[in-house]
Design a protein that fits this description.
This protein is an alpha+beta fold. It has helices spanning about 5-15, 25-30, 55-65, 75-90, 90-115, 115-130, 140-150, 175-185; strands at about 35-40, 45-50, 65-70, 155-160, 170-175, 190. The longest helix has 22 residues, at about 90-115. The chain is globular, with a radius of gyration of 17 Å. The mean pLDDT is about 90.
């Protein structure tokens, strides 16, 4: 099976069979790996285009993107169900919010391909401010406190990874040592990571 087929099989299981109120982005990025732009078409097909970024930009991202566990586990269902219901009802605020997400996606792509990781970090911050408006459950006072500490101690911008409500905070650091010390001192746990460019692969035949 190729990566498109594997991604669509995962989407069929989660979206159609389990009736989860989710999109296709997680399944596709897991299947393909790397840093790519995904276009989700109205006929439900997905176009995958690897980003045209330099090795220097990739190394800068790996050096300066930092991930911290909030300690809060959460089910994305409630947040995403609310988002889906408002979208179907053509809620003006929700649709405007989601259009902003799409715009930020294009701007982030341009920032990465031009090698401007500072702009990318600032766009992460704008995305997070936009994302919090989608649901009261998107964040909580403790997560907001950690975010404020990060922005005062070496972070350019950041956001909760995933649907929101908990999980992991990711930051683009301007001073990663200062940021690490501040957030670990505030009780967070850093999770080290590297980009994977293989995507789905066969382990045993």
């Amino acid at each position: 099976w190729d990566n498109h087929e594997l991604a669509e099989l995962a989407c069929d299981i989660e979206i159609n069979k389990l009736q989860e109120p989710i999109g296709k982005q997680d399944q596709y990025v897991a299947a393909f790996g790397g840093l790519s732009s995904f276009t989700f078409n109205q006929d439900h097909t997905v176009d995958v285009m690897p980003l045209n970024i330099s090795d220097d930009t990739l190394y800068d991202l790996e050096d300066n993107l930092m991930l911290f566990f909030t300690g809060y586990s959460r089910s994305a269902g409630k947040i995403l169900n609310d988002q889906q219901a408002k979208s179907i009802q053509n809620d003006e605020k929700m649709l405007k919010n989601l259009h902003n997400v799409k715009r930020l996606g294009f701007e982030s792509k341009n920032a990465l391909e031009s090698g401007d990781i500072r702009i990318f970090g600032e766009l992460m911050h704008e995305h997070w401010e936009n994302k919090k408006k989608r649901s009261d459950g998107m964040s909580n006072p403790k997560i907001n406190d950690w975010y404020d500490i990060a922005m005062q101690n070496g972070a350019i911008g950041g956001k909760l990874v995933g649907a929101g409500g908990g999980g992991f905070l990711m930051f683009m650091a301007d001073d990663r040592n200062k940021l690490r010390k501040a957030l670990i001192g505030a009780g967070m746990e850093e999770v080290r990571f590297k980009f994977d460019f293989e995507g789905t692969k066969t382990l045993i035949t």
